[in-house]
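pasting for ref. prot 1 ->
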Amino acid sequence: MSRFSEAISEGDGISVIPVLEGDVGALAALAEEAGAEGIAVRAADVERVRARTGLPILARDGDPAAVAAAGADAVVVSFEDAVDDERLEAVWELELDVAVDVREEEQLEDVLERIDPEIVLISERGLDDDQEDLELTLDLLADVPAGKLVVSEAHIVSREQVLALERAGVDAILVHGLRADADFRAALEELVRGTEAGL
């Protein structure tokens, strides 16, 4: 178990993981001050962010060996790569947590049967317009066995949504769209502190 899985399994309540874009170094420092338990960045930003924060880093793409060498603690692996035995075997040999990205029920079933990952990432990015926010996460969550860590990449705009996922049993959320300005820390802090206070 790496620092990323430890952070989201041992923290108080649900872990809020901001997805950083832009001046990722400065945002990483602000995320740490705001109480985030980890951060998520593109592979190209891992090394720069590692120099600015001690938080666990989830690499959202890239070669697992390269992101591990750059200082990442975990990596997202797509469903397609996860069911490729040769690719996945190389990933397991690294000291990285692996979050397998699933986007539908059939993918989840296949991944659980063939791979049995410790972390399941339920991604709601690019869903059809007729699907409501959190709907896919809540639907698939029921099929995730006890003992697995569940990360949701849902469209989060309010503290109430975060708390709904926490009550349902989600361990962490990836939060997109926090503005890279003076409001970043305040917006993130509201999500984090709100979950800790149980508001």
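and prot 2 ->
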Amino acid sequence: MEENRDDSALPRENGATIRTVRRALAILRAFRSTDRELPLGEIAQRARLDKATTHRLLRTLMVERLIDQQEAGMTYSLSIGVLELAAGLTRQGDLRQLAQPVLAALAESTGTTAFLGIVHDWQALCIGRVDGGLAIQIRSWSLGGRLPLHCGAGPRVLLAHMPPKDRARVLAGKLEALSSKTPTDPAELNDRLETIRERGFDIGVDEIIEGIASVAIPVRGRDGFVIATISISGLNAHMIEDGQARHLRELQTRVRKLEAGLTS
């Protein structure tokens, strides 16, 4: 199915080129946080393109290392090149490099999966992740994957520290439910965001995947503003004890050391 967009405002001499770029971006955005790989037909449908156009653009994106084709040749996934682009979005150019050993230390000491996330294009983008040693691995926020800003502890920490006008825009939009426990009431979310800013962390239980909990805190840059979040996720019993986050203190200690490196 060919896309149905109004291209009348595009400059005539560059209209075809701009249209091609927009279509390529539509293909990249077709991949959601829960998608590890997608077939051609699904990508075409989500991008609102016909299959021939989609296939041609996928081949180009593969050359640019933004898309990988799986061995069977029937499905596609986002490639590591997407992360190379995302790395330049943070205020601190060395954020990912400095955060990697922090994520690794957290994953090893707690047995959880550790994530580094930033805000991009009104979503929470995962730009770093390290899996822990436990048998369970969290697949809900893959490297280069995106989550709605109201879903899960990490994304919600980012939302809590966005400028008030931007927070209001998110809360006024469609608040998708990824599970029966995903908070979607704007007023309740607004109160929760205020609590996050006051206490400096958030906990999410069963909000994205049933049985999985997460804990997150903000990462502040040189100017004191929040530039990212680091979160850890695992089975509920491993993450929560008597209603409290089990690994919160270690998470806070590790992130404070990271922030010291960012400001030095």
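Residues 1-13 have pLDDT under 50 and may be disordered.
The longest strand covers residues 226-235.
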